[in-house]
Design goal:
single chain, alpha/beta, Rossmann fold, 2 domains, seven-stranded mixed sheet
């Protein structure tokens, strides 16, 4: 029986991190091991698939940028289009995994499995979680049914869809929410039920080499609208292409912020998102045309969606429809 051919893309993170002691799970340096070393640490992978490894970059995921997303998305798309590849596995850091996963979800047109994985403990730690996560990610990428489920992540015996994945603890091994999660023993039917809506994806033109700058502000009780005025100035100068606000409650905007936000150029979209991380934001009556609702998206995913939409050239009513489909 032919083994599936799985392409492994390594990008760094804690899964590739090392520390001076096997008992040190916090004072490590991320992104130290290469893709070949990750594979060598799990010899059981050879029983699952024929693996090819590629080190796309090797960084701590806190240093991940939209330009890394763009490079990764295009490389994954090329591999997914290759008839010699049956699935793609991506190793990544946990800190920004949810942002990368969502970007891939909305920019890839792939019918083959795309599975991300990561670790909360470095590779040198006692009971490191990376090796089993990697094994389970490759096992999932070998299942054709996973190709109809959108971008997935495997962490701690769970399969997490890109639409709902969120890190909610800085250091616990079980750091991610379980919203929409399946166990790694999930059936093919359960995987297929995760399939994202077809109209939730967008194509980035090949000539796009730089993604637009979109800033995210968290608004707390008494936050100064001076921050909004600074962004309005940056928007006028062309330094900011879009703004996302993480707002309290039902994306409720403090009245003191209104005058500053109305200074935003009409060409700079403003997305109102709830910092609660769920629910549906409420559109303000008589809001300016460039104000958009994040809907059920949390602020991080709203920013990713705005970056992708602007990068694809959406503006005005087309950008608004893009968010309504989210």
């Amino acid at each position: 029986m032919r083994k599936p051919r799985i392409a492994l893309l390594a990008t760094g993170g804690t899964i590739a991190g090392t520390a001076g002691s096997a008992t040190d799970t916090s004072g490590y340096t991320a992104g130290q091991l290469g893709a070949d070393a990750l594979i060598a640490a799990v010899p059981q992978l050879a029983s699952l698939a024929r693996l090819s490894a590629e080190q796309l970059f090797n960084i701590d995921s806190k240093d991940m940028t939209p330009q890394h997303w763009l490079m990764l998305s295009r490389r994954v798309q090329a591999l997914a289009d290759d008839p010699a590849v049956d699935g793609v596995v991506i190793t990544h850091g946990t800190d920004t995994l949810e942002e990368t996963a969502y970007f891939l979800q909305i920019t890839l047109a792939a019918s083959k499995p795309v599975v991300m994985t990561a670790a909360m403990r470095p590779a040198t730690a006692l009971s490191a979680d990376g090796p089993l996560n990697l094994y389970q990610a490759v096992a999932l990428a070998c299942r054709p049914a996973a190709g109809r489920a959108g971008v997935l992540a495997v962490l701690g015996d769970r399969i997490l869809p890109a639409d709902t994945i969120a890190k909610r603890h800085p250091s616990a091994v079980d750091a991610f929410t379980h919203a929409g999660a399946l166990t790694t023993l999930a059936s093919d039917a359960a995987l297929q039920a995760l399939a994202p809506r077809r109209n939730s994806r967008i194509a980035l033109p090949p000539e796009v080499q730089m993604l637009p700058a979109v800033e995210l502000l968290t608004v707390a009780a008494g936050s100064s609208p001076a921050l909004a005025r600074a962004l309005a100035s940056a928007g006028l100068s062309g330094g900011v292409a879009g703004v996302v606000l993480a707002l309290p409650g039902n994306a409720s905007l403090p009245e003191a912020w209104l005058p500053a936000l109305e200074e935003l150029p009409p060409t700079v979209p403003l997305v109102l998102a709830s910092r609660c991380g769920g629910g549906i934001g409420r559109q303000r009556a008589n809001a300016p045309a460039n104000w958009l609702d994040a809907g059920a998206l949390d602020p991080l995913k709203a920013r990713v969606r705005l970056i992708a939409g602007l990068g694809a050239g959406l503006r005005g009513a087309r950008l608004r429809r893009w968010f309504e489909r989210g």
